[in-house]
TrEMBL record:
NCBIfam families assigned to the protein according to its UniProt record, in alphabetical order: HAD-SF-IA-v1 (TIGR01549)
InterPro entries: HAD-like_hydrolase_sf, HAD-like_sf, HAD-SF_hydro_IA, HAD_sf
The protein's name: HAD superfamily hydrolase (TIGR01549 family)
Keyword terms, alphabetized: Hydrolase
Molecular function terms from GO: phosphoglycolate phosphatase activity
Keyword Hydrolase: yes
Gene3D superfamilies membership: HAD superfamily/HAD-like (3.40.50.1000)
Length: 234
């Protein structure tokens, strides 16, 4: 299900398009699953003889990074961050493109919109994927995870504010496409409206409850709307 009537209005009312990476652009952990990456990070921590009870079964590597940072030892946070950056570069090589993600990116550029990635993944991994898929030239900006500083990841508004400032745009004139309630929370905090991308049925209600301005279940709808906008400008 897609909020089609709201989508054209929402897109027409905003300029720069900010895309979360893992979800709207690709599935970065499709070939190197996130739980395996999380386990690789725990191996780093086990070498320090830490009690990992709270995160022993944690499948999300970003949560392992956050947990490590809460220990208050910057050396450990940097070690886990370095391991995560390395794993993400490996994962980027086997990431699966999101259906119609490429079409959205190309159509947005044809419509004259600046396009940026704002991600909790490392900038190096995002850039490697975009280059490998010949998409880098379509992006004005990539804002990745702040090094060894997980408090600055979304849901912090900081990455979105950094992107809008770099694009010299008022945050309210930008539109973020994100697939998590974390993206929506970051958008609300930054004053950036969020178009929810529900790539799983259960996400529709979650994204709406979180405050997404509209929700789509396929990026095709976004691509079609942007292509119509590009055509109207010719």
């Amino acid at each position: 299900m897609t909020d089609a009537p709201d989508l054209a209005t929402l897109l027409a009312g905003h300029g720069p398009l900010l895309l979360d990476f893992d979800g709207p652009v690709c599935s970065i952990f499709a070939g190197y699953p996130a739980p395996k990456v999380a386990e690789a990070l725990r191996q780093v921590l086990r070498s320090e003889r830490l009690d990992l009870g709270e995160i022993e079964d944690e499948p999300d590597p970003l949560e392992v990074l956050r947990w490590t940072d809460r220990r208050g030892q910057s050396r450990l946070t940097r070690a886990v961050e370095d391991a995560l950056c390395a794993a993400e570069l490996v994962a980027a090589r086997s990431a699966e493109p999101t259906p119609y993600g490429r079409e959205v990116i190309v159509a947005a550029r044809q419509a004259g919109r600046p396009v940026a990635v704002v991600s909790n993944n490392s900038e190096a991994a995002v850039t490697a994927y975009l280059k490998a898929h010949r998409l880098a030239g379509h992006f004005a900006l990539v804002v990745g995870r702040a090094y060894a500083d997980p408090d600055r990841m979304k849901p912090s508004p900081e990455p979105l504010l950094r992107a809008s400032a770099a694009l010299r745009a008022n945050p309210a004139t930008c539109l973020l496409v994100g697939d998590t309630v974390t993206d929506v929370a970051a958008g609300i905090s930054a004053g950036v409206p969020v178009l929810g991308y529900a790539n799983k049925p259960r996400k529709v209600a979650n994204l709406r409850r979180a405050g997404a301005a509209a929700v789509v279940t396929t990026m095709r709808d976004v691509a079609v709307t942007l292509l119509a906008e590009a055509e109207s400008r010719r």
